[in-house]
Structure formats: C-alpha cells, structure tokens
C-alpha cells in the first residue's frame, strides 16, 4: 500500500510517500479514503511530541474510509462508511487498523474528506466546550487562531451548543475571510484585540476564551473575560507557553481551564463514544455543518503537514488517499 512515512526527524520535509506493507493485527481494517493532518503530526516529524516513535513510521491519527473487515460482534460491518482514530500514527495510508472503540459510523450526509477533518478538532472542542468550559446558552466566546483547525471547529460548534456570539481573532485579512466562512459573528485582528473586544461588547467582555495559540496574548485574554469567565488552554501553536499571575484569577473570579482531550479519553472509558454520539446527532440533524477542509493529495503530505508548522493552514487540513 502507499503511505506517508517520516523517515528521519528533520521536520515535515522528511515525509516520504511510497510503498509499505499493509498493517497487521486484530481490529477493524479500513480502506482509507481520507486522512486528517494535525499540529501533533508536525511535532512528530521533529521528535518533539510526547509520543516519540522511532523512524520510519507512518503519520496520521484520524481517518475516514470503508470497513474491509471487522471482528465478530463489532458495531460496524464490512462496507460501512466510518471515521476513526489510530492514536497516533498509521492513518496516512491506504489501509489502517482501528481498535473497535475508536471507529464510528460516518453519517451519510458527511463526505470522507469532511469526516477525516472531524475527529481531532471536533471531539476536542465538543469536550472543551461542554465538559471543561461549561458553555451556557447565550454566552459569548473569543476564539484565538480562528482560521486554523481548532478555531474553525469552535466557530462551527459553539453556536450549535448554545453560544450566541463568537468573536474570531486572526492575524490577517485573508484569515478573517476563513473565520467568517466558518461562522464567526465578528472578526478582529490579533494586534489590539483586547480593545476591539471591549468595544464590540460594550465594555462587558466575553464569557469564554478559546486559546490554542498561547504566547504573549494570554494576559490580554484574561483581561477580556467577564467576572466568572473561563479561559480554555487548548495548545501552544504560537510556540511560547505563557505564565499567569494567579491574583488575576482571584480578583475577577475567573478560571484558567486545561483541556487535555487525549488524556481525558484515555482515563475515562466510554468518553469517546459519548462525545461522538453528541457530534453525530448534530451532524445528522444538520444543526452542525460538516467542516470544509483544505484537501491535499497524499503525494503532498509533506506540504500539508508543513502548513501546520508554519501556520499557513486554512482551516482543517486533510489528505485525499483514494
């Protein structure tokens, strides 16, 4: 089969697409039609992620495709359209093997490319908004990195879960268009976002900040919260891990909330199935629009992963495998 492999830990340019043996082992065998790319893939190419396989290894943690075979008693059968999580490699290939508890039926109204763009980001943000963020009806969100995968997922999901307003923070006018297309109510530039948010909200501020970026905007994000507001720490694509003076939390009764979706799923049996059930209901009913990812052919896997690292990705990035 053809697959995208990391051959040395020199960054995305070390990804090579070529022929490898099909995977073996028990589980659900899937003929992969599309595979998602995510920021951890870029880290893996440099040996900077907490999971550090030795090269060569096949990248890719999220897939969409058709079941070739399944164990007796599995909840999916040969021929079923599915999405699934490999956790954390093996997905950018023509065939992948999934654990039965990490394969989910794909609604008929969602394409393979959109399906491959659902899992990491939408499951993360469904968990972030409902469990960790305690999103309430009518609340206002501020979304950093709003043109990226996590950002566009938040802009799609938050209204379906009850938010009344989403303010997107972007670094350029081009990215503003992406955020608007994803459903942002308002868009502001990162430079001076605190004052822009204050003006947009009539001085009130926002109920929740979604921050996958980190860096030097963290303090101004805290200042943008209403009393009792929550800042969700999703990641650090900006590179720098910020620090917080905890007196700021005390003075306004605000929360800084860590969102470790993978760690939660690994320690809470049934969490993935519960999260997917919620997403599947929203997708099937049309309350939640499927993502419209930026699609690369498998041969351009290196460029797709590089766009995660250099922050040129426009929304979710997906590889078309078949």
UniProtKB/TrEMBL annotation:
Gene3D superfamilies linked: Medium-chain alcohol dehydrogenases, catalytic domain, NAD(P)-binding Rossmann-like Domain
SUPFAM superfamilies cross-referenced by the UniProt entry: GroES-like, NAD(P)-binding Rossmann-fold domains
Domain of life, per lineage: Bacteria
Record-level Gene Ontology MF annotations: oxidoreductase activity
Domain Enoyl reductase (ER) per the UniProt entry, residue ranges: 7-319
Protein name: NADPH:quinone oxidoreductase
Lineage: Bacteria, Bacillati, Actinomycetota, Actinomycetes, Mycobacteriales
């Amino acid at each position: 089969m053809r697959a995208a492999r990391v051959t040395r830990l020199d960054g995305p340019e070390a990804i090579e697409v070529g022929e490898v043996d099909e995977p073996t082992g028990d589980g659900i065998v899937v003929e992969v039609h599309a595979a998602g790319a995510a920021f951890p893939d870029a880290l893996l190419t440099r040996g900077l992620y907490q999971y550090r396989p030795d090269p060569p290894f096949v990248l890719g943690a999220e897939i969409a495709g058709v079941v070739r075979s399944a164990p007796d008693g599995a909840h999916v059968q040969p021929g079923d359209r599915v999405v699934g999580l490999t956790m954390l490699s093996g997905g950018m290939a023509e065939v992948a093997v999934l654990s039965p508890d990490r394969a989910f039926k794909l609604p008929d109204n969602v394409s393979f490319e959109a399906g491959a763009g659902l899992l990491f980001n939408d499951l993360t943000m469904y968990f972030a908004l409902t469990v960790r963020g305690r999103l309430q009806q009518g609340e206002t969100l501020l979304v950093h990195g709003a043109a990226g995968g996590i950002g566009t997922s938040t802009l799609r999901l938050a209204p379906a879960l009850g938010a009344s307003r989403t303010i997107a923070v972007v670094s350029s006018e081009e990215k503003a268009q992406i955020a608007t297309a994803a459903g942002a109510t308002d868009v502001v530039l990162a430079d001076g976002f605190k004052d822009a948010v204050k003006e947009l909200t009539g001085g009130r501020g926002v109920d929740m900040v979604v921050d996958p970026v980190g860096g030097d905007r963290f303090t101004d994000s805290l200042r943008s919260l209403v009393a009792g507001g929550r800042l969700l720490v999703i990641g650090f694509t900006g590179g720098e891990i910020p620090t917080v003076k905890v007196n700021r939390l005390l003075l306004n009764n605000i929360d800084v909330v860590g969102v470790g979706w993978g760690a939660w799923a690994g320690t809470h049996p049934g969490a993935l199935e519960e999260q997917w059930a919620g997403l599947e209901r929203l997708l099937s009913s049309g309350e939640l629009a499927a993502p419209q990812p930026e699609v690369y052919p498998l041969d351009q896997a290196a460029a797709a992963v590089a766009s995660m690292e250099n922050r040129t990705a426009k929304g979710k990035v997906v590889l078309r495998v078949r």
